Structures are given as structure tokens and as C-alpha cells.
């Protein structure tokens, strides 16, 4: 089969050279069933073994960070939904925490609980997708749908919070978009009652399955050193026996992890199987955390910080007083002023360290907006991970590091 | 060949071809509803009662789609490939007996389209022809995914054909015949007084090897590497669309049907009545005698029940194929080879040796 080297971009340098005579080159992506989102991996094959690969990104680049510097702070929030669209609530929380840090705001207790609940629900959703899709790629379709059903139920919970299922835009600077309805916490407990047996069932279906173990053990293995060298965070790092978890190591006082009792699962070999096990255990731990949070979260109490700069004036004041009307108008037309300063906040997102770095030079727009998306680091590790493995292992590895293209390219 | 034999032959061919063709939409429906049942979904439920008309409607859609042939393919082979895959699947069924004999005017008629002397050898020979269709499709598509898919398929076929053949040998030795009808007849009676003398009880290892190998032969999960969805897109039929794709799809279900029929025939007593069905022979015969009279009504009753019994066994294994597909993940290429050559092949050889030794010692 003829392969023309000029087809491959036109911008590769010597070190990226993949072409050699009489070898088979294959494109995995950008439009391929194994790439969830638009990724591209160019592989040089010897039989079915991958001799060399070049992974490419940027197919979903939408300039989100630049947009963040050109729209007001609250107009950027919907854009954070569309980064890691599997866990948009976590993005919302991390983003608003960054701006609150610049402004020096401290949200009330109740909001902290609800935000922590949000992050944990989105972690469950994200992990369900990741292990499910990973299983689909290896042919285990039923496993995926067991999880997906629970994921839909979780989206129904999120719908109770903000009316949207996927793109939530729930948090606000200094508060939350809407007060959670009184039936939210009971519904959460009810969902957890249904969710935990399903995780046990999924565990029974796949964890000891001989074919699954054979397919995943030793595949895409990353040692501790490699994981550190590639700045892995989150479940992938923990699978490689790097003992980091921001929830435990840096419990942010504005989220409630310090009060919770949970364990951080660790893997040994850093292969696909360990990543799967770590994620499955984190599902159980997240459910455990959610139970504790639901018990502790107050039913009543303010959700907004007491600061006129970021709080929308109540409607009856807007309609009945001139000052509130002007405030309301200017708030939505111009945005709110953030004092000069900079802040970086990171939370333990579902995939790893999820950080927002904001520099303000005053005014309603950020001067610099930078997102530290964990997928970006994981994707760099794909090439060394799959070297010398089979095509089928590429698919398994790619699924297990859970690259979300929206977050990778931003 | 006189008139009765001619009519009987026509009836047999008509019945078998009709059943095989109509089993495809039924199986598609069973597969979709069955998988939905396993996955807490509903499955197709809009077209007709319980969605039973979904498959015919899909066929109509596929018939009316544009028969597109990409520009870069090898046209003749590209068009030929689906037929090459489908026809052997049909042909294999010719030697499978689906009921016992019946005597009309002193002539013994077989419920088997072709009573060939080579019997099981014909099955093995024809069923391995199907892989040419896959190789042709992969090569003619001029596409790397297709090529890799068809290479996988040929490697898989070579590795599993051997174990498949060897696992049957034990049954052939015990029946002392390669006629499928003789193999079925050898499975009559009981062992230990209660267990039917089916191949699955007398040749358990042969059965397991045959079952595994037939999964590989039919390219179903966990051995669906030639399709390898999510790795190599759709494998050998990536470039196919419309009815040509549907032919590949049909061939998969035909192969499933043939494999189930062979498993039933070789290891589950074939058309022999299921335990407890014997007492239904007379009422069924009486029922049939109301419609036409030729030969002995009780014989017709037995024949009908044998066909039903065979269909139940085949149906169970068809369901088993569906069941396994939606439960297990897929093997990797090298693991598949390991399983074929390092596990199944020695196992079937050992089974052969043990069977031969036991037969020499007259234990069985």
C-alpha cells in the first residue's frame, strides 16, 4: 500500500520523523471510533505492533483561554462547561474559586458543601464514562451501559440543581446559580442507594474476567518515574503508585474535603488494569463522600457571599429602587470589577489536577486566563505508553488515560 | 428419482432455504431485544408489536440505499466478496440432518438435503471457504483497516480450523462413521441409565474445543477481531454499504446458524427428541393425519417433533451466541493465537489420544 509522506502535515521536524520505506502507516483518528473526540495518532506498524507513533492534538482547539480574556467573567463560565464536558460542574467550581480568590471572597458554609457535592457527582460521572468507554473499546458493551444508566440518573440530579444536564453553568462568583431544591439531598441519597449496587455489579462483571485481565494487565504501563516525568496527576498517577490527591494533600477550606473520611486508592504497575481498578475504587469512595456530605450539608442557610459587587440585587429591589436598577443593569451589561491581582486554584478534578490561573489588571475581564487541564499531560504520555504494543492496546491505553478532547485542546 | 422423491427433495430444499433466510431477521430481532434485556434498555419497540418488524424494515432500507462502490477499490472482487462469504454458509447446511427418516411406499426418505458420503468432511471443507470472502473483501477494499481485518481473519481461520477438525474426530471415532446421520444415531440411548448418550457427555472436552473454535469461525465476540470495531473501524467491511454490507451481516448470522446446527448435531444428539417428548408422538401424528395421509401417521408425528426438537437445540445455541457476545470483552490478536495454538490445539490432540486409548481398551 502506498503511503505518501507529504500527506502527513508538512510541519514535522527530524525528531518527529515517522516515515521509513516499506512500512505500513496507519491513522488512528481524527475521525475514528477509538478516539473519543478528535484526536489523531499516526502509527508506524510492523504487523500489528506499533513501532512508533506521533500523537497530534489541536483538532478541537477553540481558543477558550483567549476567549476568557475577551469576555466578562460571568460570560466565560459557559465556556468552562465545554472544556471537560463530562464533568462540567467541576470546571465551574474550579473557575469560580479562582476568581473568588482574586477578589478575596469566602463563600458561605452551605455553598461549600454543595460545591463539594457537585465535584464528587461529576467525578462519578466522569469515571463511569471513562471505565465504560474503555470497556466498550475492548468489546464489553453491557458493562458500559450499566454505568451509563446510573450516569443518566446522576444527570437528573444535576438537572434538579440547574435545569441543564450536560452544560451546567451552575456556580457563580460568590455563590451558586440557584438554590438547590429541598428534595435534592433526599434524591441524592436515593440515587446513591441505586448506584452502589450497580458498581458492585460492574465489578463482578469485569474485574475478574479472564479476558479483561489479559487485555489490560501490563498494557500501557507507566512506571512511577515515568508518571512523574510526564506530570501525571489524578487517577492515572495514582495507578502508577504516585501517592497524590489534592483532596487529601491540599484540602481547600472553601471545599469540604478536610472534614470527610475517605481513602485514596493506589495502583502498583500503572497499567490499564490498575487505572481501571483505581477508578472503580474512586467511584466507591466518591459515593462514600457523597453520603457524608449529604448528612452534613445544611438544608437552610445563605448560598451567597455578602458582597454587593458580585451578588445580583433581589428582583423586588430592582423593580422598586433606582439604585438597584442601575446596579442590576451595570452588573449584566458591564460585568463586575475584579481588583488587580492573580490567583491559581486547583482542585482534584476527575482526571487530575484541574487548575484555573487568572490574572486581573482590574476591570470586568481577565487579563490572562490559563487553564491547567489534566488531559493535556496525559496525552503527552500516550506515545511512550503504546510503543511496542499492539493496535488493540493503543485503544485500551487511550481509553484508560481518559483524554477529553474539549479539555485537551480547549 | 421418482415423483415422491422429487417432491420430497423440493420440500426439503424449500423448507431449509426458507428457514435459513427467515432466521436472519428473527435473529437480528432476538439479538437486539436480547441485548437490550441484558443492558436495562428497551431495544427496538416501535415498528410492529414488540418491534418485530424492525428487521424487515431495516432490510427494506438497505435495499433502497444507493449501491455505492468507492473509486479506489478493485471492482470485480469487491462485488464478488460478499457472495463468496454468504454462499458457503448456505451450502454447509446441506448435509445437516434436521429430522429422522420416513418411509413412504416402502422408500426411506432422509430429512437431509444431501446425504453425502464425505459427511462431516464436507462441512469442514465448505465452512473454511467463507474466509476467502473476507480476504477478498479486505484486499479489494484497498484500505488499511480492511486489510488488517482480513489478515486477522485468515490467521484466525488457520489457527482454529485445526482444533475444530480435531475436536470432531473424537465423535467420528466413537460413531465409526463420518455420516452426520450415523453420528446422530450413535448418540441414541443412555449412559449410566439416565444421561442421554449425547456427545457433550461422552466427549466433553471435544465439545468445549468445538464450541470455542466455532465462535472463532463465526467471527463473533469474543473473537470478532476481523471486524475489531473501535480498533480498525469495521475491519474487512469498512468500505461496504447498502445491500453488500447486509450480505456480510447475513453471512454472520448464517454462520451462527450453521455453527449452532453443527453443535447440536455433533454434541447434543441432533434431531433426537428431547427427554419427555416421546409421549407427544401419537397426538402429533393424529393431528398431522387430519391434513394428509401418506405413510404412517406416527412416523410423521415423530418427524415433526424431531424437527421441532432440532430447532429448539439450534435456537438455544443461537441464543448462547448472543448471550456470550453481550457479556465478554474481545481478545487481542496475539492472545487469540495463543489460545488457538497453545491451548485448544494440544487439548484437542490429547482428547483424540485419550479417546483412541479408551476405545482400544473397550472402555467406551
Largest beta sheet of chain A, briefly? 3 strands, antiparallel
- Strand content bin of chain A: 5-15%
CATH superfamily of one domain in chain A: Cytochrome-c3 Hydrogenase, chain B
Unreliable residue runs of chain A: 1-14
CATH topology of one domain in chain A: Cytochrome-c3 Hydrogenase, chain B
Radius of gyration of chain A: 22 Å
Number of helices of chain A: 17
| Neighbour order of strands in the largest sheet of chain B | 1-2
Strand content of chain B: under 5%
End-to-end separation of chain B: 40 Å
The tally of strands of chain A reads: 8
Quaternary: heterodimer
Task: Please name the CATH architecture of one domain in chain A.
Answer: Orthogonal Bundle
Could you outline the blueprint of secondary structure elements for this entry?
The complex is a heterodimer of chains A (410) and B (364).
Chain A (H helix, E strand, L loop, with lengths): L23 E5 L11 E7 L2 E8 L7 H5 L4 H9 L6 H16 L5 H29 L3 H22 L8 E2 L2 E2 L7 H23 L3 H7 L7 H6 L4 H6 L6 H4 L22 H25 L18 H6 L1 H13 L6 E9 L2 E9 L7 E5 L1 H7 L1 H5 L4 H10 L4 H5 L1
Antiparallel strand pairs in A: 1-2, 2-3, 4-5, 6-7, 7-8
Helix pairs in contact in A: 2-3, 3-4, 4-5, 4-11, 4-16, 5-6, 6-11
Chain B lengths: L2 H36 L15 H11 L10 H18 L6 E6 L2 E5 L8 H8 L2 H12 L2 H32 L4 H7 L3 E2 L3 E2 L2 H4 L1 H14 L24 H26 L13 H9 L7 H29 L7 H28 L4
Antiparallel strand pairs in B: 1-2, 3-4
Provide the descriptors you would attach to this structure in a database record.
heterodimer; A: 410 residues; mainly alpha; Cytochrome-c3 Hydrogenase, chain B; three-stranded antiparallel sheet; B: mainly alpha; two-stranded antiparallel ribbon; 13 helices; 4% strand
Give a structural overview:
- The complex is a heterodimer of chains A (410) and B (364).
- With 410 residues, chain A is mainly alpha-helical.
- In chain A, helix 4 packs antiparallel against helix 16 and helix 5 (141-162) packs antiparallel against helix 6.
- The radius of gyration of chain A is 22 Å and the shape is globular.
- Chain A has a three-stranded antiparallel sheet with strand order 1-2-3. A three-stranded antiparallel sheet of chain A has the order 6-7-8.
- Among the domains of chain A are: 5-56, no CATH class; 106-306, Cytochrome-c3 Hydrogenase, chain B.
- Helix content of chain A is 48%, strand content 11%.
- Chain A contains 17 helices and eight strands.
- Chain A has helices at residues 64-68, 73-81, 88-103, 109-137, 141-162, 184-206, 210-216, 224-229, 234-239, 246-249, 272-296, 315-320, 322-334, 374-380, 382-386, 391-400, 405-409; strands spanning 24-28, 40-46, 49-56, 171-172, 175-176, 341-349, 352-360, 368-372.
- In chain A, a hairpin with a 7-residue loop joins strand 7 and strand 8.
- Chain B has 364 residues and is mainly alpha-helical.
- Chain B has one domain (3-55, 62-360).
- Chain B contains 13 helices and four strands.
- Chain B has helices spanning 3-38, 54-64, 75-92, 120-127, 130-141, 144-175, 180-186, 199-202, 204-217, 242-267, 281-289, 297-325, 333-360, and strands spanning 99-104, 107-111, 190-191, 195-196.
- Chain B has a two-stranded antiparallel ribbon. A two-stranded antiparallel sheet of chain B has the order 3-4.
- In chain B, a hairpin with a 2-residue loop joins strand 1 (99-104) and strand 2.
- In chain B, helix 1 (3-38) packs across helix 2 (54-64), helix 1 (3-38) packs across helix 10 and helix 3 (75-92) runs antiparallel to helix 4 (120-127).
- The model of chain B has no long low-confidence stretch (mean pLDDT 83).
Amino acid at each position: 500500500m502506498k503511503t505518501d509522506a507529504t500527506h502527513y502535515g508538512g510541519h514535522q521536524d527530524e525528531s518527529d520523523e515517522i516515515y521509513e520505506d516499506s512500512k505500513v502507516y496507519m491513522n488512528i483518528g481524527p475521525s475514528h471510533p477509538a478516539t473519543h473526540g478528535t484526536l489523531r495518532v499516526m502509527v508506524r506498524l510492523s504487523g500489528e505492533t506499533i513501532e512508533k507513533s506521533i500523537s497530534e492534538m489541536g483538532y478541537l482547539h477553540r481558543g477558550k483561554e483567549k476567549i476568557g480574556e475577551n469576555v466578562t467573567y460571568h460570560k466565560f463560565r459557559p465556556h468552562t462547561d465545554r472544556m471537560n464536558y463530562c464533568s462540567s460542574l467541576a470546571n465551574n467550581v474550579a473557575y469560580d474559586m479562582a476568581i473568588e480568590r482574586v477578589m478575596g471572597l469566602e463563600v458561605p458554609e452551605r455553598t461549600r458543601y454543595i460545591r463539594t457535592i457537585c465535584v464528587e457527582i461529576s467525578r462519578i460521572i466522569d469515571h463511569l464514562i471513562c471505565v465504560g468507554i474503555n470497556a466498550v473499546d475492548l468489546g464489553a458493551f453491557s458493562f458500559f451501559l450499566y454505568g451509563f444508566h446510573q450516569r443518566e440518573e446522576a444527570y437528573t440530579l444535576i438537572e434538579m440543581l440547574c435545569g441543564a444536564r450536560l452544560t451546567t453553568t451552575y456556580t457563580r462568583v460568590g455563590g451558586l446559580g440557584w438554590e438547590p431544591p429541598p428534595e435534592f439531598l433526599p434524591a441524592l441519597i436515593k440515587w446513591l442507594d441505586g448506584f452502589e449496587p450497580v458498581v458492585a455489579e460492574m465489578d463482578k462483571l469485569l474485574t475478574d474476567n479472564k479476558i479483561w485481565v489479559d487485555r489490560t494487565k501490563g498494557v500501557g504501563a507507566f512506571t512511577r518515574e515515568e508518571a512523574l516525568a510526564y506530570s501525571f496527576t489524578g487517577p492515572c498517577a495514582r495507578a502508577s503508585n504516585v501517592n497524590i490527591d489534592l483532596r487529601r494533600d491540599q484540602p481547600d477550606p472553601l471545599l469540604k474535603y478536610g472534614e470527610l473520611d475517605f481513602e485514596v486508592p493506589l495502583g502498583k504497575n500503572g497499567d490499564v488494569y490498575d487505572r481501571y481498578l483505581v477508578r472503580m475504587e474512586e467511584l466507591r469512595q466518591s459515593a462514600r463522600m457523597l453520603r457524608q456530605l449529604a448528612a452534613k450539608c445544611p438544608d437552610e442557610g445563605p448560598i451567597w457571599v455578602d458582597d454587593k459587587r458580585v451578588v445580583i440585587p433581589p428582583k423586588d429591589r430592582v423593580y422598586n429602587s433606582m439604585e438597584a436598577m442601575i446596579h442590576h443593569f451595570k452588573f449584566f451589561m458591564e460585568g463586575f470589577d475584579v481588583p488587580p491581582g492573580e490567583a491559581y486554584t486547583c482542585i482534584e478534578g476527575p482526571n487530575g489536577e484541574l487548575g484555573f490561573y487568572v490574572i486581573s489588571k482590574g476591570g470586568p475581564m481577565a487579563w490572562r486566563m490559563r487553564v491547567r487541564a489534566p488531559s493535556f499531560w496525559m496525552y503527552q504520555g500516550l506515545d511512550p505508553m503504546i510503543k511496542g504494543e499492539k493496535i488493540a492496546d493503543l485503544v485500551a491505553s487511550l481509553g484508560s488515560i481518559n483524554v477529553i478532547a474539549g479539555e485537551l485542546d480547549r | 428419482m421418482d415423483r415422491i422423491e422429487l417432491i420430497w427433495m423440493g420440500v426439503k430444499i424449500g423448507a431449509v432455504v426458507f428457514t435459513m433466510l427467515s432466521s436472519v431477521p428473527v435473529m437480528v430481532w432476538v439479538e437486539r431485544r436480547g441485548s437490550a434485556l441484558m443492558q436495562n434498555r428497551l431495544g427496538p419497540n416501535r415498528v410492529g408489536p414488540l418491534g418485530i418488524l424492525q428487521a424487515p424494515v431495516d432490510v427494506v432500507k438497505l435495499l433502497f440505499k444507493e449501491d455505492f462502490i468507492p473509486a479506489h477499490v478493485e471492482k470485480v472482487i469487491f462485488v464478488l466478496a460478499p457472495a463468496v462469504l454468504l454462499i458457503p454458509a448456505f451450502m454447509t447446511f446441506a448435509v445437516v440432518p434436521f429430522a429422522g427418516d420416513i418411509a413412504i411406499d416402502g422408500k426411506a426418505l432422509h430429512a437431509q438435503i444431501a446425504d453425502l458420503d464425505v459427511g462431516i468432511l464436507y462441512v469442514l471443507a465448505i465452512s473454511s471457504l467463507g474466509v476467502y470472502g473476507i480476504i477478498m473483501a479486505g484486499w479489494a477494499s484497498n484500505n488499511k483497516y480492511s486489510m488488517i481485518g482480513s489478515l486477522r481473519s485468515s490467521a484466525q481461520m488457520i489457527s482454529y480450523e485445526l482444533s475444530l477438525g480435531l475436536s470432531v474426530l473424537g465423535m467420528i471415532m466413537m460413531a465409526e462413521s463420518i455420516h452426520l446421520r450415523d453420528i446422530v444415531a450413535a448418540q441414541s440411548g443412555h449412559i449410566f441409565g439416565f444421561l442421554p448418550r449425547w456427545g457433550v457427555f461422552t466427549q466433553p472436552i471435544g465439545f468445549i474445543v468445538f464450541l470455542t473454535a466455532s465462535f472463532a469461525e463465526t467471527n463473533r465476540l469474543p473473537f470478532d477481531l476481523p471486524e475489531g470495531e473501535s480498533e480498525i473501524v469495521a475491519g474487512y467491511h469498512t468500505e461496504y454499504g447498502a445491500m453488500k454490507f447486509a450480505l456480510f451481516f447475513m453471512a454472520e448470522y448464517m454462520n451462527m446458524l450453521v455453527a449452532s446446527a453443527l453443535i447440536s448435531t455433533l454434541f447434543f444428539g441432533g434431531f433426537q427428541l428431547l427427554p419427555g417428548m416421546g409421549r407427544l408422538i401419537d397426538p402429533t401424528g393424529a393431528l398431522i393425519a387430519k391434513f394428509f395421509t401418506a405413510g404412517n401417521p406416527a412416523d410423521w408425528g415423530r418427524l415433526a417433533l424431531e424437527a421441532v426438537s432440532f430447532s429448539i437445540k439450534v435456537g438455544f445455541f443461537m441464543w448462547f451466541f448472543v448471550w456470550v457476545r453481550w457479556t465478554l470483552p474481545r481478545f487481542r490478536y496475539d492472545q487469540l493465537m495463543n489460545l488457538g495454538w497453545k491451548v485448544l490445539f494440544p487439548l484437542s490432540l490429547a482428547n483424540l489420544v485419550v479417546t483412541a486409548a479408551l476405545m482400544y481398551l473397550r472402555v467406551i
